[in-house]
Amino acid sequence: MVNLNQYPPKNGRNYYLALGLEGSANKLGVGIVKHPLLPKHADSDLSHHCEMEILSNVRDTYVTPPGEGFLPRDTARHHRNWAVRLVRLALKEAGISDPSELDTICFTKGPGMGAPLHSVVVMARTLSVMWDVPLVGVNHCVGHIEMGREITKAENPVVLYVSGGNTQVIAYSENCYRIFGETLDIAIGNCLDRFARTLRIPNEPSPGYNIEQLAYKCKNKDCLVELPYTVKGMDLSMSGILGYVDSLAKDLFNKNTKNKLLFDSQTGQQLVTVEDLCYSLQENLFAMLVEITERAMAHVNSNQVLIVGGVGCNVRLQEMMASMCRDRSNGQVHATDERFCIDNGVMIAQAGLLQFRMGNTINDLAETVVTQKFRTDEVYVAWRE
Amino acid sequence: MLRHSIPQFDSYQICASLFTDVENTRELRTEVASMPFAMIDASCIGSLEQLFCAVYKAILESTYNRLRTKNLNSECILSLSPTSNIGEAFKRFGIKEDSKDILCLTVVNNTESIPDTLFDDVKGQQIELSDENLESRINLDLIKKVR
Amino acid sequence: MSQEVIDQIAAYLTSNIPIVPISQGAEAVVFTTNVHPYEPINAKTSPNDQSTKTKYVIKYRPHKKYRHPSIDRALTKHRTLGESKILAKLSQLPGLHVPKLIATDVYNGCIWIEFLGEDLPDSFGFSNLKNYLWMHASDPYCDDVKKTLIKVGHQIGLLHWNDYCHGDLTTSNVVLHQDNGHWEPYLIDFGLGSTSTLVEDKGVDLYVLERAIISTHSRFAAKYNEWIMQGFRSVYEDEGKKGQQKMKDILKRFEEVRLRGRKRSMLG
């Protein structure tokens, strides 16, 4: 059994405090969480029942103009500019006047974009030295998973992690979050973002959200634009789909009437709209995601799904997942919540605090190097059986 | 006459007979298109399984409105062939100038009745349609050419 | 298993074809029945014999409500047809044991195949490789097990030598069928099967099976895998210089796949 209480909180308190710093992509998040010290955690497998309390959760997103993505250098600058302000705000909201009270400071070690990760870890090191608080490096994906488990109380779900940089189906086995299936090329969020860029739709609030809204407006839902369906066993590939749907969108904008799929060959009348393309793209991509999730569920004999990551906010994806689960005997979807879907500091604090409670802290600043490549299955999950 | 129906599609009935030493093949050949049944060169059929597999497929295609020939009887001949080339299928499995052993087959809706006289135009000796009789008449060289 | 799925298939198979569900995967549900889809009952055996002995397997890919109907239709048709085609091709390869394909219904996502295997004694369950190895757990290295595993390896070798890949090799996807008192392994479930000349696909196939054996029969896995590979190599060794070279390439890739644990390292 796991003992989560082997490293007691600072100053003889009966609760832990952790600060989480997240900045692996275009969002900078700072969160502070509190875990009560409970006897039940001394000998248990209850890492999803920490009774976590969110003391503060602040975030700022770097938004680029329509048609542009976020570049590492500019994103890193954004994070540097906002870091101090956000940390101050988070401490104030949490009502912490003396930051050295914190048990640990958690930062995203990876995966993500190099420059933004680096800005955030510099901040984390500075705070650690200034306040004399130990550091914990957290895998971004594990952050999403642990936050999702804590909030939904799902004990052992199959996790579909869908975001701008990741597309993975994950299940726990032997102290490791094993990746059952994943993208062979680009991530789903990346695919949607890039298509949004081709369509030149706004990046505010998020490109994926705007595609979702356009898809709802599709008037011709019976007639799908046929796109490649590229599930390869447990894995999937999306670059081909993006390339194809991009070329369709370009033909549409350039009024290329030679394209018989988009324009009537006799009258030249337009047959397909931008909304239709968004709808078809979503239906196609999400069907692939749900399919590989179902495979993983059958494989590990689980009936719970947890969707995490930014794309998890998509209502249509949640609907499809729920429909799949209904057809499996008493399946449940733990759909999703802004708190663990969109990158934030709290999830890093949650996963980091679990790591801290298992004694997995950083002793030497030399160990705080961040890495762009950091696979979910490289993390030793000490806090589960 | 062998009467059978496919369990999954029991609204159809199938009737088949095997004739040997047929004398009027040439004559029958000119009327192939107007006959209410299909005539198959029995030397291309080695078992009932092979025959009814094609019938199953034909009825299936018909149920989902995917007939590629004009009726169920002709679709059965096409379904015997591994390719979708209609001309090729009729050439291989339909009766030839010199065919002596002819398998007659019809598939109809249950609402219709099949008269016992249906195959009377075929002038030959009717023998039992069985695996043994088919096996002994098969021409393996012909079958091997089918690709 | 959802009753709705059973009702769906029962409705279109009609009451003439009684079905018994035996397993459910992510993609398909498998049933057995004792009714042949089209062959006249009195064709080969007497009716009594038919009902007691002959069984057929129906693999049904149910309609998936979560996906758009046109995607669903296209996929069901494509995969049902794909699996039938691969089964048909494989059954023509000399020496390779796969279940015989009986019928395909692409519109409903159904394939009919012959039933293989039997129930093992002492309630060890159905005679797939997994249960068979469990049954022999008390005498794990007996001659019978060795012979059987070498044959399993030989089957996989034949499959790969002919440039086919299974895609989901596990111990439950190998069925043992008694033939003159000997167990003959049959590979089943080609739902993820493909033709492939890539060493990568073959390496992954071998790796997946190795993992499956390690996870279900961990204590004896080393010896088991060794015997399987012995059978696998024998196929290539019989094919002269060309075979030797191909085998070297596959085994090298197998080693690489094992080291990286199937997955490529990728950007986060």
UniProtKB/TrEMBL annotation, chain A:
Q: Which residues form a coiled coil?
A: none
**All copies of domain Gcp-like, residue ranges:** 54-349
A molecular function GO annotation:
tRNA N(6)-L-threonylcarbamoyladenine synthase activity
**Compartments it resides in:** Cytoplasm; Nucleus
- Domain of life, per the record? Eukaryota
Q: Which InterPro entries match?
A: ATPase_NBD, Gcp-like_dom, KAE1/TsaD, Kae1_archaea_euk, Peptidase_M22_CS
Using the UniProt record, give the first listed, main subcellular location.
Answer: cytoplasm
Keywords in alphabetical order: Acyltransferase, Cytoplasm, Metal-binding, Nucleus, Transferase, tRNA processing
**Cofactors:** a divalent metal cation
Top-rank EC class of the record's enzyme: transferase
Any single biological process term in GO:
tRNA threonylcarbamoyladenosine modification
Q: What is the name of the protein in this document? A: N(6)-L-threonylcarbamoyladenine synthase
Organism this protein belongs to: Lachancea nothofagi CBS 11611
Automatic annotation (TrEMBL), chain B:
Q: Name one GO biological process term.
A: tRNA threonylcarbamoyladenosine modification
Gene3D superfamilies per the UniProt record, alphabetical: CGI121/TPRKB
Identify the InterPro entries for this entry.
Answer: CGI121/TPRKB, CGI121/TPRKB_sf
Q: Where does the record place it?
A: Nucleus
- Entry GO terms, CC: cytosol; EKC/KEOPS complex; nucleus
Mostly located where?
A: nucleus
Q: Respond yes or no to whether keyword Membrane is given for this record.
A: no
Q: Which UniProt keywords apply?
A: Nucleus, tRNA processing
Keyword check for tRNA processing, yes or no: yes
Q: What does this protein do?
A: Component of the EKC/KEOPS complex that is required for the formation of a threonylcarbamoyl group on adenosine at position 37 (t(6)A37) in tRNAs that read codons beginning with adenine. The complex is probably involved in the transfer of the threonylcarbamoyl moiety of threonylcarbamoyl-AMP (TC-AMP) to the N6 group of A37. CGI121 acts as an allosteric effector that regulates the t(6)A activity of the complex. The EKC/KEOPS complex also promotes both telomere uncapping and telomere elongation. The complex is required for efficient recruitment of transcriptional coactivators.
**Family statement drawn from the similarity comment of this UniProt entry:** Belongs to the CGI121/TPRKB family.
Q: What is this protein called?
A: EKC/KEOPS complex subunit CGI121
Native organism is Lachancea nothofagi CBS 11611
Automatic annotation (TrEMBL), chain C:
Query: NCBIfam families from the xrefs?
Result: arch_bud32
The molecule here is called EKC/KEOPS complex subunit BUD32
The subunit structure is: Component of the EKC/KEOPS complex composed of at least BUD32, CGI121, GON7, KAE1 and PCC1; the whole complex dimerizes.
> What protein family does this chain belong to?
Belongs to the protein kinase superfamily. BUD32 family.
Originating organism: Lachancea nothofagi CBS 11611
EC number(s) recorded for this UniProt protein: 2.7.11.1
Q: Is the rRNA processing keyword given for this protein?
A: no
**Reactions accelerated catalytically:** L-seryl-[protein] + ATP = O-phospho-L-seryl-[protein] + ADP + H(+); L-threonyl-[protein] + ATP = O-phospho-L-threonyl-[protein] + ADP + H(+)
Q: Where's the Protein kinase domain?
A: 16-268
- Where is the protein situated, by its record's location annotation? Chromosome, Telomere; Cytoplasm; Nucleus
User: What GO cellular-component annotations does this UniProt entry give?
Assistant: chromosome, telomeric region; cytosol; EKC/KEOPS complex; nucleus
Name the domain of life. Answer: Eukaryota
* An annotated Gene Ontology molecular function: hydrolase activity
- Name the keywords, alphabetized: Activator, ATP-binding, Chromosome, Cytoplasm, Hydrolase, Kinase, Nucleotide-binding, Nucleus, Phosphoprotein, Serine/threonine-protein kinase, Telomere, Transcription, Transcription regulation, Transferase, tRNA processing
Enzyme superclass (EC): transferase
Q: Which Pfam families match?
A: Kdo
